[in-house]
Amino acid sequence: MSNLKYATRLLALALCAGLAPAALWAQTVPPRPRPAPAKPAAKPAAKAKLGAPAKPAAKAPGAPAKAAGPAVRYAVAFPNAVHHEARITATFAGLPPGPLRVRMARSSPGRYSQHDFIKNVYYVVATDGADHPLPTARPDAYGWDVTPGADGTVVFHYTLYANRSDGTYAGVDAQHAHLNAPAVFCYALGLENRPVEVQFNALPDWKIATQLQPAGEKNTFSAPNWAYLMDSPTMLGAQQVRTWEEDGQTIALAVMSPDTPAAVDEYMQRVQQVVREEKAIFGELPTYDFGRYTFLANYLPQATSDGMEHRNSTSLTAPRDLQGANALSNLGTVTHEFFHAWNVKRIRPKDLEPFNFQRTNMSDALWLAEGFTQYYGELTLRRTHDYDDAAFFDKVSDWVSERLNSPGARYTSAVGMSQQAVFADRGASIDPVNTANTFLSYYYYGAGLALALDLELRRDHRATLDQYMQALWQQYGKKQANFAPTRPYTLPDCQRVLGEVAHDTAYAGQFFRRYVYGHEQPRFAEDLQAAGLAVVPTHQLALGEQVGFDPQGRCLVAGNALIGSGLYKAGLDVGDQLLMLDDKPLRAPADLDAVLKRHAPNQIVSAQVRTRAGAERAVQLLLNETASVQVQRTEAGAKTPLTPAQQSLRDAWLASQVR
């Protein structure tokens, strides 16, 4: 019998026997305290900004948020964890007359695309405070309308399927639970300003790590409002926890991993270095809302590689342990996500305020919010000596090469790439798209701009990108109220601050006009030369990267042909097959390699092809090279000695800033 049929039959039997629907939950959910009678609020609560619909219901449809009332209480249990299910009970008390509009979020903080978390919610039952069934309607695909009873209480039960432990969704199994709040907790329109309590019925030996605040009762936590809950991931399981004090605040590292305590201790020391190095960039830590910041590090084999920033914590997930190169890979996510505690969680674009949980969230500024963070994540690893020069310059090579190779970057600005995040940020679609020719990730786009800007400030303006970030922090990030920035920024704000830091408003205007609003390519070679670095073409033939062999030995065009490439000019595209190249049959990768080794870049060879429609024809194929480069020290091999100015700039750029 299917789960759905089983649940339906249980419900029918309960009703026939005169049992309330909530009785179905009695065996799996711990008894919950009865909601206290509603008390009139002494005064309206202050409005929250970050995602809280204190303005028009977080831009969600429905009534605007009302003043705070009795806390919304959630109970979370895991009676069927082995099959990735959690049981959630939400209690809404002190309700006014009229339907209660219960919804699930459709987007999540730090993700800008749409996810529709309701697809993993089922077995929904609503009762009043005495377990009497309540009428429930489904007005649309994203929630339910429930008519409260005479006691003004709705108790809303549902089952959640959770089988992806990452920064967006939720993962539950017999070993752990990794819960991203928008994927887990329903909410009620109009009650977003109420305080929240969450009780976890954790399995034996499970610890709980979260930025939510302990609420007195065992395994019970609180949030000041719904928006704060939505920004608060929770990790449950057997954990190794390390804490230390940093400038009067507590930093916690909670790790779920098969590693030994000694390995976790060593990793903690590396995380400490990251915290101090990034603090030095801004000059201080943020004031965490409750004096504590927590790294939620889920390094279990079943985790999915991801990272997600939050105000007072970060979600770190990867199926890697803490051994060797794996530890460095994990640390790369730490450097990126911790930098977000300043850049994007507090230094925040105005077009993301308040965050809309019922649709996509488009921003013009992700080249700065994400791209500059990408740059500093890698630079931090060089400054902590987790990278040597060669490893960091490999990252620089990637940023430059991605920009040079991208057809889309020739036509689309940093603003335009940022706006595409609503489709590119793990948004789901099944129809083919032409992103290879139209999109360059705002991570790479912005990292390249940060690189160019940092070097130009150092070379020409006796300033640094660190100073620019400090200025943004002081003017737009440091002052917070109601768990949100009091002064989110616009792009004209960023341009003005750059002019102040560079002491050159004309330069700031030119930079934004060319590279932010425009799509000019930064002068990477000229900028890197200031640090004694050369941009050296790799002279790689592009064809080897653009085709691949399937299990049947067919050489197929593996993706959309890039504008300007030999494949594009020959009229070939994804799914077309190369039968012969330079009169040689192509049946295995070695056949292709042998042909390519005999030819220099930009030679033209004959090719026999079969289109995906089945037609065969002969074409002349240009063997173009990629635009990829390798950034190298000019003094490598004693070719060009460094000047004192180049040496000084490079040393100041890459050295630790911790004093």
TrEMBL record:
It comes from the Bacteria. It holds the Pfam family Peptidase_M61. Gene3D superfamilies: 2.30.42.10, 2.60.40.3650, Neutral Protease Domain 2. Keywords: Signal. Residues 73-237 form the Peptidase M61 N-terminal domain. This is Peptidase M61. The keyword Calcium does not apply. Residues 31-63 are annotated as: Disordered. Residues 39-63 have a biased composition (Low complexity). Residues 331-447 form the Peptidase M61 catalytic domain. Residues 1-22 form the signal peptide. It comes from Hymenobacter nivis.
